[in-house]
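Risk register update: the risk of archive-format incompatibility is retired. Evidence:
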Amino acid sequence: MQSLSEIVQRNLQLIRSRAPAASEAKTWIDEFNRHLGAVDADRLQAAFDAARADSAGSTRYRPLHFDDVLHQYRRTNSPADTSSDGPPTDPHCSRRCGDGKVTVLDGKGYDVLALCDCRGGAYWSKQPAWASYPSVSDLLSTRRFTEPEEAQVSPAQAEWLRDRTGQVGIKQALDEFTAEMQRRAER
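Archived output:
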């Protein structure tokens, strides 16, 4: 693993096409520590990479500055960080929400977002932006809302449709599927 000094020196050389002075690299490291506290080496490298990529995509040329890298550091998760900041996935969720949010239908058939009653929904309800959202059980108890109907195809049929769509396109796959279902219904 590279030290912070090696990472800064290497990236400053890439940015400026010349080797930086040791004092310049030390100044950058001191500033990172002043603004961020402890600096993760993997995350710092990822921030330099993101800042260079962002600069390369701009329409005007400008050299990268410390603030560009600092901004990217704050936006970049460490590649070594495998923890998730998102909602937990509940494999036993009865609504199979996946991320804690589900859709219900109001009386006019419009989709309305609600928080699931599982651990994922509990995670979102603790977030400030989602704290006022109702839970799915609250909405369904009003009788004004209903759950969407389950898919009319089995998981095996859905998998066949996905595979066949990739082979021949959606229209032909649906035509073949419909013809097969009609043939089976006529038996």
